[in-house]
Amino acid sequence: RKEVEQDPGPFNVPEGATVAFNCTYSNSASQSFFWYRQDCRKEPKLLMSVYSSGNEDGRFTAQLNRASQYISLLIRDSKLSDSATYLCVVTLTGFQKLVFGTGTRLLVSP
Amino acid sequence: EAEVAQSPRYKITEKSQAVAFWCDPISGHATLYWYRQILGQGPELLVQFQDESVVDDSQLPKDRFSAERLKGVDSTLKIQPAELGDSAMYLCASSADRSRGYTFGSGTRLTVV
Hints:
The structure holds 2 protein chains of 2 kinds.
Chain A: E1 4-6, E2 11-14, E3 19-25, E4 32-38, E5 45-49, E6 55-57, E7 60-65, E8 70-75, E9 84-91, E10 98-100, E11 104-109
Parallel strand pairs in A: 2-11
Antiparallel strand pairs in A: 1-3, 3-8, 4-5, 4-9, 6-7, 7-8, 9-10, 9-11
Chain B: E1 5-7, E2 10-13, E3 19-24, E4 31-37, E5 44-50, E6 53-56, E7 65-68, E8 75-79, E9 88-95, E10 103-104, E11 108-112
Parallel strand pairs in B: 2-11
Antiparallel strand pairs in B: 1-3, 3-8, 4-5, 4-9, 5-6, 7-8, 9-10, 9-11
């Protein structure tokens, strides 16, 4: 079983739609959680950290469920510019190794 | 905004040749990571440094890959000899405060022919 699992997609949605991605992780000792965005052939860039209390940044909402070991990302009012791959990332205990999911590809169409 | 510098951006090399990548993390960042990303997959950790010490190189193919961070600042990743399967994006990342996430460099795209 992979340490971090994501549906690779692609998710094809029209502009203005709401779309949600989920991610599950296997190590209950995972400490920190993030969503990264990666454009084609570019480096990953931090989108947002994820907290148990949930956090929101504009059109983006992230949620962590430690009991079920999953992380979610909700994008409201999708824009064409949201088209990218969204990587779920967790860090493990100790020296905080970053573990990535395979990413979920989002395509927003006009 | 501070950046993680990587060079070269692109590298084409022949199978069995040696190749090296360089990374300069954000000033003051003690933790430095080298990741490899094969097209269509998420990045996978090759090696992690804390200052000049290696803290995780369990996924580094040590028969052909080596990494160093001699003064705890910039770092070099070397492959010798390169194989066709090494074609990938090599990403360097650094971090000062783990709870705030990690900053990636723009990567080196390696093609082995």
